[in-house]
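Quick start: read one record
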Amino acid sequence: MNLDRRQLQAAATTDSETDNETDNETESVTAALQAERSARYLQILQTECDRELSLVNDLLELQRLEAGAVQPVWASLDLREWIPEIVLAYRERAESRQQTLHLELPETLPTLVTDEQIFSSVLRELLTNACKYTPPAGAITVSVTPADVTLQLSVNNTGTAIPPEELPRLFEKFYRLVSRDQWRQGGTGLGLSLVKQQVERLGGTVSMTSDDTATVFQLGLPLEPPVAEPKPGEFL
């Protein structure tokens, strides 16, 4: 069967349009892949920039603490209102990782006179640390207990036990348990060093234990500001 000129031209036009559509689709796919790679690269770059900035800020704060340049601003805190605000801010993060977050408070709590900003930084770092090292279906528990002239606060998380020989090193600068960071959250390795310095600046103590059931950070804070020792040449 012979095709007339119009049919040949129509066929040629159709083939050309098909080729153009294929080329356009290929270009669209290529552009989408390039955009995805660029977005991924920018995200990596942003993460690294944030990490470097956090490292610099942590180092500066640690140096100020070690030099005694941080002067607490003492204020009274209503713990039954203040602590839930800090802890519950981590609920969404915990739930996204299939973790459960519990807060245990007694019916009555004494007023704590402390530096709100420093205490907040300590509690947030311990909660961030707990979320980082708690596996899916694990539990994080924050409990508060008054004891005479101190406040005892613990942050407890289930998960793999930390080897006993590593426990004393956890408060060292830049020491990290990379093998236990299953969420690949990363960090500066200065968080717990800061916690130790900050708690001591508030006149308190921090310690930790770890076994097959849980890892526990225990804080002890005085209910009232510590009495400053006089400097040489000064009198009380």
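The longest strand covers residues 139-147.
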